[in-house]
Sequence to fold (343 residues):
Amino acid sequence: MQGPRTYRFSFLLMLLALLCAWLLNVSSGSVNIPFADMLSTLFGENPKITSWEYIIWDYRIPKAFTSIVVGAGLSLSGLLMQTLFRNPLAGPFVLGISSGASLGAALLLMGITLLTGYGAFTFLGDVSLAIAASIGSFLVLLIVMIVAQRVKDTMALLIIGLMFGSITSAIVSVLAYFSTAENLQRFIFWSFGSVGNLSVNQLLLLGGIVALGVLLSIISIKSLNAFLLGENYAQSLGVSLKKSRLTVIVATGLLAGGITAFAGPIAFVGLAVPHLTRQIFNTMEHKVLIPAVMLYGAILMLLCDTLAQLPNSASVLPINAVTSLVGAPVVIWLLVRKRKMMF
Fold:
């Protein structure tokens, strides 16, 4: 396997692309701020218009860093799932973790109101939504971990995860059917996904959760490399399958569950970015792939969020739709050009 030094130039280019994408993202928005003024404000100079400083430091920069955390975390969770199941179609949604977060949000926005007649969201706000989605994702993760102790076949675990996703989707559909139009609208807006609604404290909390998931992934690098060679070969290398699988599942739960709780369900990134990254980094070494998919995911998420900002307009397109509209054709083109998936 080729090591990180082989791809040093590629990593430098991606870091440069990340910086450019970050600057482009910060300079974009409903208020037109000249690029030179944006740069001078970043370096501590007073802007021509006082409100520009507030817009840049209190809104655009937290949003840009949220995009980086979300893109990097979702991409890494997709890589972990595809490696664990040795399946190119695996992603953060397959274990039902993201669906569990949606169920938690749906129960808060539609279920409590349906049962009590009072809107919990009205009193508790966005924080309660994040907490409910986190509880939903981790409850599903807990069930999956219990099942993982009993099921030895990873493909069976994959199918069980898909079934959990179907069950949670069915419950959400029932809640939506009986919900009021107002609560249903709130849930639909949450399901669009957004990287612009997090405060600095929420961003720091999300960053801590994602950092823990990344740390568990780094600890599992040896196991991840061994999984690609088959479970029997991994066992012959001294890898504890049960312990390693649980570690990878917990890491995925932290990454996908935490991000979905705070930013809503964002599709496509976790599934596609590992494949896009392998077009550049032709290796199965996870010492290379983990930082590469995180960088690629962060760049893609910044670009998608920039495109979602309609110029000189307060309207923002749903990030969930933009990631799919931008990314899916690129994946199709790459696969047609290469004629196969590199996995």
